[in-house]
């Protein structure tokens, strides 16, 4: 699904990602781990083709990333799971869910749907799958944070990308809901055969739900192996503090 | 990949450019001293003052207690109120119809390429600025000279400057919505006009409707004033009565104007509460 060959990115003097070579197969569930500022978000942004790498080659679904046009083409390949506050608050839930279809819709249909929602059954089914079927016509801003994330997930279900990228998908909800939400996300990608790449803070959560761990620290790959093979010592070393002088706040 | 056409990322990377804090303080100081200086520039002493003003003020205030409520005056007042209301409503409606497309173009949000965006935004913002630079009363004079005394004059004279104001405010609001939902829409494959329909417009809707209602209220006051040029309506009647020094009639018409503005304000307040609830 993703193939990186010596992909690197720097912001001015800061090396955000040292040359990285990595392959992620279709259907894999990869957790990106490591301390803040380690390069997780940079890597996710590169995979989303938000910006091109400074060096190296990146291909998404076998095609060079720089040749992919943003918009519909990219939306079919890669979807982004937002952190929960990326919905349009004043719209009804049904429109926020149906926004997943905008890449496929033309002008007339997009406009008409705001008056009388089109393809309502798709939206209803998706909401039922994420566990909040009764919220279809509710105003989105009235939903709780966890429910809003479920709406965002329902939108992704309609978008049907081949890979989902998530930046700390459960950092905004409490631990009990985080577990449920992650189980839901992982269950859905497993059913659909979607690739999942997510940056994760919670170590046990990541090891339980993801098949592979890619650990980054200061822009460099520390280890890359199946979740089952990761040892507690490795985790401790990954997050260990350096001496106070060289390490910033983070 | 052009800078305007990059794919939506996970997080925003660039924040808005702002002047540094100490320079803004300097600017504030400059503006405040300019205000202080302007006070000294006003010639407070001179002016043409009514010699027998106190007596006239007494008569005007005396008439306030006894407005003219005769059937004939009330009939004129009702007709004039209705006319003023109709001018304001038609004028502001036309203004909204003009302001929505012009505001969208002036915000430049539909343009993908930065160059096109700058051209569209500059051209339409300049156009809207020109419309509202001229006061509705001046528009009314111009139209009376060009068309004559037709209801169209009142409607157009109100619609043009109000379209300038509403369009400008809409453009600013569209530019200023939170970026995260828009990024998420683009990530889902939405093109810019779909981002407008599903993101920007719904996010500004409540504020924009509230502001348009407030402008409608302003439009009623403006329509009353504008009728001084001879277009009929409450302002015209007030002027006629003042010319004849019939202050009791003046208060009847002023009362109608106040009642109309208060009613519109109550209704628009109710609408705004429902929208934001």
Automatic annotation (TrEMBL), chain B:
Pfam families associated with the record: BPD_transp_1
Keyword annotations: Cell membrane, Membrane, Transmembrane, Transmembrane helix, Transport
InterPro entries in the record: MetI-like, MetI-like_sf
Membrane topology: Multi-pass membrane protein
Domain (ABC transmembrane type-1) ranges: 81-272
Transmembrane segments: 21-39, 45-65, 85-110, 138-163, 218-238, 250-271
An annotated GO BP: transmembrane transport
Entry coiled-coil feature ranges: none
Intracellular or extracellular location(s): Cell membrane
One GO cellular component term: plasma membrane
Gene3D superfamilies, per database record: MetI-like
Family: Belongs to the binding-protein-dependent transport system permease family.
Protein's name according to its UniProt entry: Phosphonate ABC transporter permease protein phnE
Organism, scientific name: uncultured Thermomicrobiales bacterium
